[in-house]
Amino acid sequence: MAENEMLYNLFCYDRKIMDLKKELEKSDDVERLENLRDQAKTLEQNLFEAKKQLKSLQNQEKKEELENEKLNQEKQQLEKEMYLGDKGVKEISDLYDRINELKNKEQKVFDNYCDISDKIEHEKVTVENYESKYQSYLEDILSLKQEIERRKKYNNSEIEKLEQEKEKINNNLSKDMLNKYNQLMKRFPYDPVVKFDQQKETCACGLDLSTERHNNLIIEGIDFCDSCNRILVYLD
Ligand SMILES: [Zn+2]
């Protein structure tokens, strides 16, 4: 490979390596991943609260059930007493009042129980919704993480291949030329080498080559800019 071609390839590899590294650094996906994690955390908290609320409602429901059972037993006991038959009018009337009172209490407990049951059904739907949303966030996070890892792996392996290609060129370029290239690379990381063809006659710094210099470049294949010192290569 001729020197001009080697230098131009070297610059192309460096450019690609720079782009690949940049892509890894400024990837929006890292920010997206952070957002997804924040949202999943909020959902996890909501889910936890909803489950706590459901548990508390279920405990209340249980309490009302027990209360209802207790009142029912008490009522049955009084009804038995009433029908024993050895009671006076006053006693029967009192028992009757107490049974009615218990029936009223029972009704209230039952109403309360129904109310709580409705709330439980509602809360179960809430828990299910949070749960499925939370799961879908976890899936999104996982797939995005895999995507980031995949790209990282790909870019790193591409960088490694390019470094190997660079190494081959480095071994074939003269030490002086390599030093010159590396110095220019520090000053102009995006264009230390400028490629010319039959038409192109202007350096990256804006300097126009004279027709004579341009013709000479076409013959020699390589030259240096008088103004910025960049490496000028002719490749058709
Ligand atoms: Zn120049």
From TrEMBL:
Taxonomically, what lineage is the organism? Bacteria, Bacillati, Bacillota, Clostridia, Natranaerobiales
What is the protein's given name?
Answer: C4-type zinc ribbon domain-containing protein
**Which residues fall in a coiled-coil region?**
26-81, 127-179
Q: Which UniProt keywords apply?
A: Coiled coil
Superkingdom per UniProt: Bacteria
